[in-house]
């Protein structure tokens, strides 16, 4: 069976290809179009399809659209209802629904040779659930989905047994934890459906002094249900304009909303554990990208294991929809790695460099060269292997720096054009993580949890320590990422530090670098000292020599 999964309707359009029950390719449209998040989540853009990522997925497997057995579209317009009946203020939502109903025809036009009848609608939250319960490592698990909205709801709780889902609870709109957090994102002057992670970062600078009042709008209510209604945010603090300075009130409001979100997630998880008795929870939906809430869920929740889909937002529903349809005909396996995007051979990378007439070196070991540059306090653009699926740079498209220089946090935020309160993450060998980081699950390969940094290490790796003493850790297993592990080992040999700063290879407002041209453009426009493009090294002083 050859199934193409498509996410298109709201935001983060993406495609994934499942062949014989295995995910072989997945990519977000933004990596090809170079439009952040692919498009804005407006009814007027709902007709846009991830055509570029779809074509690449097919090319990766040597398929044509006619070779597909099905296309799984991660939304079912037959389950939707008018926005006013759902309690939503969205007068153009009917246009979104109309575009969704016409998706088979649109897809057939975008992918010549595809028969419209091969397009299958998959309920949005079923696709999210499959991206966790089927793509995750457990054949049996409880599954939790929380996001902004699907057809009529914003939540699903269920139970996977042998990768077959039983739905235990849903909740209709307008109650939505995701929309609750999106509304606050906009009130705080950030871009909704895009910058929610900035609210999470800002929350660490505040205290939850408004939490009691906000609980009247957002709280768990028992029996697998919750309340999350629109909040009159202006009653707490004036709306912040984009680019305006943030105040203590803004930080306190973020902290208060973050606490209410965490309490709601915990309440739902406790109920779900009572229903299933499972040891493992799999988690997806945009709310699952809140790594602070994930850590509290791990620490205080009833599940021994919590697995979060690396592409937990809407992009991941492309994988989930394809697995959901494939499971009807054949067994399916877990997602093997988030590194499911584009990659190039060494010779192809050499050709890119020579075509661009870029001076480069071919050292015996690029890992050692990068470690040496980092030890000298250089900033390195690291471009290796297939690109990551999802919003986190996990050692394939990364900016790296020395963690022992406190100024490198401000330096990297300046390089990327980001807000000063944004943290950067530590990358560490899995076997060394426990001596430095605690309070979250280890190993933690996908940067989806925060950990406490041990007191004796905070002054040694200050660049990766957030204001609250935590860090969003990525652990590296040498069996899965031998090149990254070799670089970390070489850096420790030179500095005594087994940690390197890792943040995504992009600048503010731009998607993560994906192909070699993107890497060269980013390197040429940002103050980066070394580009490690596969086995090749490009030095800034020679690049501009």
Automatic annotation (TrEMBL):
Any GO molecular function: transferase activity
The keyword Transferase is annotated on this UniProt entry: yes
Keywords for the protein's UniProt record, in alphabetical order: Transferase
InterPro entries linked to this entry: ATPase_NBD, Carbam_trans_C, Carbam_trans_C_sf, Carbtransf_dom, DHBP_synth_RibB-like_a/b_dom, NodU/CmcH_Carbamoyltrnsfr
Pfam family, one: Carbam_trans_C
Keyword Chloroplast: no
Gene3D superfamilies per the UniProt record, alphabetical: 3.30.420.40, Carbamoyltransferase, C-terminal domain
Residue span(s) of domain Carbamoyltransferase C-terminal: 371-540
Domain Carbamoyltransferase: 2-72, 118-323
Cleavable signal peptide: none
Lineage: superkingdom: Bacteria
Family in the record: Belongs to the NodU/CmcH family.
Official protein name in the record: Carbamoyltransferase
Species of the source: Streptomyces gougerotii
């Amino acid at each position: 069976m050859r199934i193409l999964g498509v996410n298109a309707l709201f935001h983060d359009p993406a495609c994934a290809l499942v062949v014989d029950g295995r995910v072989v390719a997945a990519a977000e449209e933004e990596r090809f179009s170079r439009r952040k998040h692919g498009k804005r989540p407006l009814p007027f853009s709902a007709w846009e399809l991830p055509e570029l990522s779809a074509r690449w997925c097919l090319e990766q497997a040597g398929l044509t659209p006619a070779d597909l057995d099905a296309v799984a579209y991660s939304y079912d317009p037959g389950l939707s209802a008018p926005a006013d009946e759902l309690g939503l203020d969205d007068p153009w939502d009917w246009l979104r629904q109309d575009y969704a109903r016409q998706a088979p025809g649109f897809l057939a036009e975008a992918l010549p040779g595809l028969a419209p009848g091969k397009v299958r609608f998959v309920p949005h939250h079923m696709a999210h659930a499959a991206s966790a319960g089927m793509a995750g490592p457990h054949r049996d698990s409880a599954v939790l989905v929380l996001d902004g909205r699907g057809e009529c709801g914003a939540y699903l709780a269920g139970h996977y047994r042998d990768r077959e889902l039983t739905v235990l609870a849903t909740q209709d709109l307008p109650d939505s934890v995701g929309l609750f957090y999106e509304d606050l994102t906009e009130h705080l002057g950030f871009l909704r459906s895009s910058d929610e992670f900035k609210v999470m970062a800002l929350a660490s600078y505040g205290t939850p002094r408004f939490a009691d009042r906000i609980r009247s709008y957002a709280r768990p209510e028992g029996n697998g249900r919750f309340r999350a209604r629109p909040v009159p945010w202006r009653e707490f603090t004036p709306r912040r304009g984009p680019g305006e300075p943030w105040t203590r009130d803004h930080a306190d409001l973020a902290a208060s909303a973050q606490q209410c979100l965490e309490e709601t997630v915990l309440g739902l998880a406790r109920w779900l554990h009572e229903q299933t008795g499972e040891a493992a929870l799999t988690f997806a939906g945009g709310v699952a990208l809140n790594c602070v809430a994930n850590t509290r869920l791990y620490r205080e929740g009833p599940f021994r294991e919590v697995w979060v889909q690396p592409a937990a937002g809407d992009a991941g529903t492309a994988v989930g929809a394809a697995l959901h349809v494939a499971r009807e005909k054949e067994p399916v396996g877990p997602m093997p790695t988030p590194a499911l995007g584009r990659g190039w051979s060494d010779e192809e990378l050499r050709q890119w460099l020579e075509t661009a007439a870029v001076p480069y070196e071919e050292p015996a070991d690029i890992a050692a060269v990068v470690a040496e540059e980092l030890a000298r306090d250089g900033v390195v653009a690291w471009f290796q292997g297939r690109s990551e699926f999802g919003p986190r740079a996990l050692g394939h498209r990364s900016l790296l720096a020395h963690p022992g220089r406190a100024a490198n946090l401000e330096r990297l935020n300046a390089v990327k054009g980001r807000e000063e309160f944004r943290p950067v993450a530590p990358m560490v060998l899995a076997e060394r993580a426990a001596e430095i980081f605690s309070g979250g699950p280890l190993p933690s390969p996908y940067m989806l949890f925060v950990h406490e940094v041990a007191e004796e290490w905070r002054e040694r790796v200050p660049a990766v320590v957030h204001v609250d003493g935590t860090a969003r850790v990525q652990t590296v297993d040498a069996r899965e990422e031998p090149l990254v592990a070799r670089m970390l080992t070489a850096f420790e040999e030179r500095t005594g530090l087994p940690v390197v700063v890792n943040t995504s290879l992009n600048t503010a407002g731009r998607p993560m670098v994906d192909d070699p041209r993107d890497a060269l453009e980013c390197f040429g426009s940002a103050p980066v000292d070394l580009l490690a493009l596969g086995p090749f090294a490009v030095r800034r002083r020679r690049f501009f020599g």
